[in-house]
Amino acid sequence: MSVRCEVEPNRCSVPRTIGVLEAEAAGPTLIVIGGVHGNEPTGVRAAEKVISRLNSNGQIARGRCVALTGHRRALADPDGHTRYLEEDLNRLFTPERVKEALRCNRQSLSPDMIELAEIVACLEAEAERARGPMYLIDIHTFSSRGTPFAATEDAIRARRFCRGFGLPMVLGFEEELHGLLSDYFTNRFGGVSVVVEAGRHGEQAAERIAEATLMRALELTGLIEPGIEALEVLKKAAGARAGRIYDVRYRHVIKNPDFKMLDRVHSFARVHVGEHVADEGGCAQRTPESGLMFMPNRQKHKRPGDDGYFIVRRVGGVWLALSAWLRDRAWIHRALPRFLPGVRRRGASGHELLVSPQIAAVMKRDLFHLLGYRLVRHDGELHLNRARRLAVGMQAIVRSVGLMLAGLVAGGERRILAEESPQDWIVRRHHLDVLDEQDS
Ligand SMILES: [Zn+2]
Predict the structure, then answer these.
(1) What is the pLDDT of residues 284-303, one digit of tens each?
(2) What residues sit around ligand 1, an ion, with C-beta below 5 angstroms?
(3) Deepest in the core among 49, 58, 154, 361, taking most CB within 10 A?
(4) Residue 281: which domain range?
(5) Distance (Å) from CA 347 to ligand 1 centroid
(6) How far apart are the first and last CA of the chain?
(7) d(CA 20, CA 27)
(8) ipTM topping 0.90
């Protein structure tokens, strides 16, 4: 059985569909994708193995599982280091670029945009035939040594599902990176998506993790009966970090292709603000945030705009439980634009807020995360040391009080604030949280 999802036939040697498993009984649709970056074929190989094993083993109990290749043209390149051709495919899944890819005729599209159009066509076809909830597992590998991990957005349903893998869980990538396939999938189809970084490019261990991830995803979605083997493999690979949760705090964007991480800086190493972690353009790169080093880029080819490294921080269980409780209170979401100075509603949905940059400097992202909001635009975020942050905070409090008083006099803060300024932060409730609230 194959899915017709090429926009039109072409001569690429890598097929789009790796394999399909389908049961007669209705159930969830699990979409597995590997090789969204062409230099990461591990997920493709793992999917081939898992699909062929299940094909000879009596298939699945319910639902449907489709395994797809990501960047076919980059995967087909024999040099093995081709991540993408002109633009990173995993930054193209924005509503604007998707619209552009589907509208233009194929001759005028770049190779990466053709991949985008084809993958979107596949996902749309799956959504049309789905007879239950949809899930996406997007398998990647990384360039440096490190622990495998799973990343998802911080919606309650996504957190719960992602925990089932037993890997360290990283939240908040979608705030730093725009145009991710996983983010597009969740917002377009209302399904949970999980990105699994299975290990280092080309290593056998990464392929084992990728296989275990796919088996575990089939179990967690109920497509096959649960076992213990896959979870054991994943927990063992995660070691002491199994089940821990981290939040992305900072992303360094590469500006110069000579960017080089220092050898001593490894994934999950503790770094302090101002610490020299990389060299770039003849200068020492110092991290503006304290936390844990994450995914330092040691790719062979680096281009401006690529990720240099991330800083993450561990999130505690109490914080997560409190956050789950708070975001469930409808009155909190109603009260925020009414009572917080400098915070006002954006659009008619009631799920999106504008935050004045002075206020955002004090509240930072923690408060919004706690209340179940993701940062959609936060370009003006300042990375300051403690003393400077305190000073900016005091200024902001004074301004906020001024704003409140002026608002009272003018008959509402809204009257004295501009409709929307480009410096305002935009924060939005997680799509899955909103969907689940509407269903309950
Ligand atoms: Zn990747």
Answers:
(1) 999 998 999 999 998 878 88
(2) 37, 40, 140
(3) 154
(4) 248-314
(5) 34
(6) 37
(7) 14
(8) yes
